[in-house]
Design goal:
By secondary structure, this protein is an alpha+beta fold. The chain contains 18 helices and 16 strands. Strand 12, helix 15 and strand 13 form a beta-alpha-beta unit.
Length: 458
Amino acid sequence: MEKPALPKGTRDFGPAEMAKRQFILTTIRTIFQKYGFQPLETPAMENLNTLEGKYGEEGSKLIYKIRSNKSLRARLSGEKIDALNSIYKFWLPQKSELGLRYDLTIPFARYVVMNRHEITLPFKRYQVQPVWRADRPQKGRYREFYQCDADVVGTDSLICEAEIILMIKEVMHKLNINKYSVKINHRGILNGIAEVIAAVGREGELFVAIDKLDKIGEPGVRKELIEKGFTSTQLDSLFALIGTKGNNREKLTALKTTFASSTTGLKGVHELTEVFDLLNHYRADDNHVEFDIALARGLSYYTGCIFEVKINDVAIGSVSGGGRYDNLTQAFGSKEQLSGVGISFGIDRLYDAMEELKLFPKETLSSSKVLVCHFDEATRAYALGLVTQLRAAGINSEIYPDVSKLKKQLDYANKKMIAFCLVVGEEEMKSGELTIKNMESGEQEKLTITTIIHKLTH
């Protein structure tokens, strides 16, 4: 018999891992709701024509296609079905009609078009679900992983971009991540660069290559673009622009001169400047926020501001990304052009980064705050009423189910990282004063159940 194994690029999550993941998800959900976003879910699979052509050439190669055996059988009958059953273990080519969700943005756009008359614009939604990509598994990159998205559709206001930055900064703060960068750029600036270096009409090739700068460096990007027919003169101009020095405002000022004859480039500069101005109006600063001229993001549907978040001191790629899209709903036949902007957190990468930096609070690992211990059937019966009182007060509690030695029960509490043990013996039953032990400090005292509940809830 074969040993059980997981498909490459997927993982199981035990109770300890799930406790940490829930800490991340609860933090992000709470902040999204604080900013007015509402929850949404969409199916794991979509019609393939919903997904194809929305992610650029590179992204489209990574869509998991689902082949339907039922659709093949429907075309066969009699002897052909018998033949199919006999060779069922072999792959039979057929047209794919379905695909697994590649991200949460395209399904969201599809939902908006299908429910346009039921939703109120601007429509703000958040979504936490798994996505699938036929990628090569490596550290920080999985074939199945969770995304946590927040999008606003139905407004052009750059307040949305500013609030995305505010949400990112708040999420990082609540997760105890202090060393990170929120990189921001604008597709208008990238298009302006294409104009300046005489590469109009080749923006897709240019952006895909620039997007790899962090992975393969300038030599690798130069090599790739030379092979695609770009000249050394064009690339010298490109990297001179990308290498513009200064703080955020200084870079934007420098680009105003560079884009003097580029309407598209100037629009990008103007909108980024407004985003930084809005942050000031929110009484926020641009700490951790970096205007990165080389930030391209490979997805083809972005049209305005683009974002990427990286955590310093960890060998993991971006943990969040997103941007503005102006024509996504039109891809589904909508005559109404609805502008939207969104951000996506990669839960798996956040988890790996926090694990590496040891940032998870100890209390996230404990599902129960109190374990009620006992010595025999009589004290166990008495203890059941105490558990009910603790739970009624909102204290996560459990009772050791078997009559066992006290040491075994205390060991159980330690392994589950339960903070307190309530020990019920014959004496405690008579007096009403229960022994409560702090499992971290080892200190213990005798208190009534009323006092214990007050102590643990205040």
